[in-house]
TrEMBL record:
SUPFAM superfamilies referenced in this protein's UniProt entry, alphabetically: E set domains (SSF81296), Six-hairpin glycosidases (SSF48208)
Organism: Flavobacterium hydrophilum
A GO term, aspect molecular function: cellulase activity
Domain (Cellulase Ig-like) ranges: 294-377
Classification via CDD domains: E_set_Cellulase_N (cd02850)
Record-given protein name: Glycoside hydrolase
Length: 859
């Protein structure tokens, strides 16, 4: 029937074998005869590894606030890429983010037995289970052990799930007991409607299924089911084999319920049984002697001729750095020629990889270049005097206009969204725990009763991020940053038509007014509306229902845009109101922290708006003084154990009084600021130095001399802390990327350089942008959408289901997964910690971009 032609190919006699049989035989042969992968070993970081494969066993736990973020449980780093997650006991075929998650009670690592055992608990059902992982042959065995049988309520519900990210398996096939199928590019498998009585409740009574289906829910059905599954048999980098010794393994497509769903392998736990109730043998293929390709980190935007130019090479721990790398330049004849053979300097190990550096600062000639390191060749980049001159334009021209709430936003032939949330908002109910971190306490702290309409709120503001809520503190940060950009650089660019009267925005259409001032006005209008109509700034304003919150697409369709009228039935309308309770809720518990911070933003905005909108400018200053006074009274009444002046709250009053002094020149504010600033610097230097630096132009020489000592301490501190990584800047190790932290670090360095150039040179500022633009771990993509030669292709915005971006958005960047993995996926937009662009991050980036342009012309 066949004969071997080579180790990777088979000649088939077409007369004697069907093509399907040939394909199945090829898959079987590939899995059984070609793999020479080594056995998994338990390393010192307490996960299993072999070249090309890491298996994590609850190195990362499920999150109690945002639930299933697809970053927990049993996970694979498969040939350098995280492709599998969520290995755990779950209660749904295809769990959504807000479905119940198990709590890890214990994790035992037995190095002698080469095993890891975790105990999981669903406290809601008093249900415990153990998962034991032990290497075997070229894979590992997964056992589920129960001390007691599955509770009656969970029979047929509790099962072991293992989730596979769809983008790693598109254009691939699967085998289930030898039967071939193709992973669907778009979800089109079967679903059923089940009675709500059979649904495991979601978080706090919320439901992702709309309120038309209160007595039913959607249940996904398997693509296939069998004892033996093979994922991507034709792709050795992604091949995974699963064999179940007892229960069938079902293959599901979770995207039927949510666009962020994954492919899931699942076996139901048997009823009325304890002890070892489920055993899988799992064999992810590992290519023999696999070594990850080097990643050459550099700025996708390019470099100024005179700045330092250091590329960072990220290497597999089993790779050895080459001695040299070459820099090639495009000549006038259209050919690239080598301009420099640079030494490769070994830096050392950081987390899971080795690092080396290429310094090509000696190249100052303008032109187009690329870097060649061994067989790896980068894309081209520029060295020019004006490389930074336009980098912030997409953020102000496109991204911020698209984020504008309560406005119709048009761009040429495209309408980004209609006018959203014209239904104002309702007072949130008492003692309510909401999603996305919102809570309402036992009092409203307003004149409104629970679920009473708050008028006058359909004005101004921005969508906080990829969701469509108003977050007040983010607005405060944006306004403060925009005012800094206005006062430091007088950013007068005009590329957007903004009409507050008709609530219309047109992108790429100048209207004779600086866009920056119009955006400051737009943010201020919502803050003023909060203070005037609610009585004080609020935590935020967000839709009441989970089935609204996961809305993707046009923001104007998240509600019916009609004020709620409780006298009407749901989905009934009289033309001016409706009985559908979809209006956003305002979470209104008052804190001095937010009052102070809002006062500071309004005080700063009053300066920027003077001469542009004098009436609004005067109102901002009046409200800022009022809020500062009221916040001080709140602090006097607060008990020591419930004072809002926490780590984030400390210094909030100082921010407010500084901005009031800068706006009024009233000496009482100056005195109050000076009473606080030095102690605050002693308590938290990095957190408070920005306020000290902002005050410099308004202070005397003695202040500058005294601050100099703190600046020296700051430099010593950051140099020591940032020496632990090859990029020489603050790399965040948490579940939300650190792009904003790097931007703020570089911006602080700008302020220091401008006032103390002998202490901190401008390279500390350029260094931050180099990181943002591609000189970072994992990849060399620019973290600013549509900026740089190669930038992010996907981001977590309102259009994330389209697998695209909004130009100018700044993604969070690299998340840290314990114990040693930094990740930023560019094929899956739904990881918000990696890919969600936020408004304050965008504003901070605009400031830094203009700061670098200021340095570019500095003599």
């Amino acid at each position: 029937m066949y004969k071997l032609n080579s180790i990777s190919g088979i000649l088939f006699n077409s007369k004697r074998i069907l093509w399907k049989e040939a394909f199945l035989f090829f898959c079987f042969f590939s899995l059984t005869n070609i793999s020479f992968s080594q056995n998994l070993v338990l390393n010192e970081k307490e996960y299993f590894e072999t070249p090309g494969l890491n298996v994590w066993v609850f190195n990362n736990e499920y999150n109690g606030m945002f639930f299933d973020e697809k970053t927990a449980g049993i996970e694979f780093i498969h040939h350098g890429v995280r492709t599998v997650t969520g290995g755990a006991i779950r209660l749904q075929n295809t769990p959504e983010q807000w479905d119940l998650i198990p709590k890890m009670i214990s994790r035992k690592v037995d190095k002698a037995k080469n095993t890891i055992e975790v105990t999981l608990r669903y406290e809601e059902f008093n249900f415990d289970s153990k998962i034991i992982i032990s290497p075997k042959d070229k894979g590992f065995v997964m056992d589920v052990v129960l001390d007691k049988p599955v509770p009656k309520k969970l029979e047929g519900r509790a099962g072991f799930n293992l989730e596979f990210i769809p983008t790693s398996y598109f254009e691939s096939n699967y085998l289930v007991d030898g039967k071939a199928g193709t992973f669907p590019r778009y979800p089109a498998s079967n679903t059923e409607i089940w009675p709500a009585s059979q649904k495991i409740p979601q978080f706090a009574g919320h439901t992702t299924f709309d309120d038309r289906g209160k007595n039913e829910f959607i249940a996904t059905q398997p693509l296939e089911s069998g004892k033996n599954l093979v994922f991507a048999p034709e792709n050795p980098e992604r091949t995974v084999k699963i064999q179940s010794l007892d229960q069938d393994v079902m293959l599901f497509d979770g995207r039927n319920l949510g666009q962020n769903g994954w492919f899931i392998a699942r076996s139901i736990l048997p009823a009325n049984k304890k002890g070892k109730v489920l055993t899988w043998y799992i064999e992810p293929n590992a290519i023999p002697n696999w070594i990850r390709k080097p990643v050459i980190g550099f700025s996708q935007v390019g470099y100024l001729p005179g700045q330092k130019k250091i590329a960072v090479i990220e290497l597999d721990k089993n790779d050895k750095a080459l001695n040299t790398a070459s820099i090639f330049k495009l000549n006038e004849d259209g050919r690239f020629v080598e301009k420099l053979k640079a030494d490769v300097k070994v830096w050392g190990n950081y987390l899971r990889y080795n690092y080396a550096q290429i310094d090509f600062s000696t190249i100052k000639e303008k032109g187009l270049y690329y870097i060649q390191y061994g067989e790896e060749k980068t894309n081209t980049f520029q060295i020019e005097d004006d490389v930074y001159s336009k980098i912030w334009h997409p953020t102000m021209d496109v991204w911020f206009p698209v984020q504008m709430d309560h406005m119709e936003v048009n761009e040429a032939y495209r309408v980004w969204h209609g006018k959203p949330f014209l239904d104002d908002c309702l007072q949130a109910p008492l003692n309510h725990e909401h999603f996305d971190g919102y809570k309402q306490g036992p009092a409203t702290d307003t004149k409104y009763k629970p679920l009473e309409r708050i008028p006058g709120m359909s004005v101004g503001g921005w969508f906080d991020a990829g969701d469509f809520d108003i977050q007040t503190f983010s607005h405060v940060s944006v306004i403060n940053s925009f005012v800094e950009s206005w006062e430091a650089f007088k950013v007068t660019r005009d590329e957007t038509y903004i009409d507050q009267t008709t609530q219309f925005v047109d992108i790429h259409r100048p209207d004779g007014q600086p866009d920056l001032l119009q955006q400051i006005e737009h943010g201020v209008l919502n803050l003023v509306a909060q203070v005037e109509n609610i009585g004080h700034p609020v935590r935020g304003i967000i839709v009441p229902n989970l089935h609204q919150y996961h809305h993707l697409g046009d923001a104007s369709t998240e509600t019916d845009n009609l004020p709620y009228n409780p006298s009407l039935k749901p989905y009934e309308s009289n033309g001016i109101s409706s009985g559908t309770p979809d209006d956003r809720w305002a979470f209104t518990n008052r804190t001095s922290f937010l009052d102070y911070r809002t006062a500071g933003a309004l005080a700063s905005a009053s300066r920027a708006l003077k001469g542009y909108n004098n009436a609004l400018s005067a109102k901002c200053l009046t409200l800022a003084i009022k809020l500062t006074s009221e916040a001080a009274e709140l602090d006097k009444k607060a008990k020591p154990d419930d004072s809002p002046m926490s780590r984030w709250g400390k210094g909030s009053d100082m921010v407010a009084i500084l901005q009031l002094y800068l706006s009024t020149k009233d000496k009482q504010y100056k005195t109050a600021f000076l009473d606080k600033i030095w102690k605050s610097l002693d308590e938290n230097l990095e957190f408070n130095i920005n306020s000290a630096l902002l005050a410099l132009p308004a202070m005397d020489d003695n202040y500058k001399v005294k601050l100099r000592g703190y600046v020296i301490k700051y430099k010593e501190k950051i140099d020591k802390e940032n020496a632990d990584n090859p990029y020489g800047l603050p790399l965040v190790k948490r579940g939300w990327g650190g792009t904003s932290q790097v931007i703020n670090w570089a911006s602080t360095n700008y302020y220091i350089h401008k006032s103390y150039p002998d202490i901190l040179d401008k390279e500390y500022v350029y260094q931050g942008l180099n990181y943002i633009f591609g000189c970072h771990p994992y990849s060399n993509l620019s973290f600013v959408n549509a900026v740089g030669n190669r930038s992010k292709k996907v981001a977590y915005g309102g259009n994330r289901a389209d697998f695209t971006t909004i130009a100018g958005g700044v993604v969070p960047g690299l998340i840290f997964l314990k114990p040693d993995y930094l990740e930023n996926k560019d094929d899956w937009p739904f990881f918000w910690g990696e890919n969600e662009c936020i408004i304050d991050g965008g504003a901070w980036y605009v400031f830094l971009a203009n700061a670098v342009n200021d340095l570019a012309v500095e003599k």
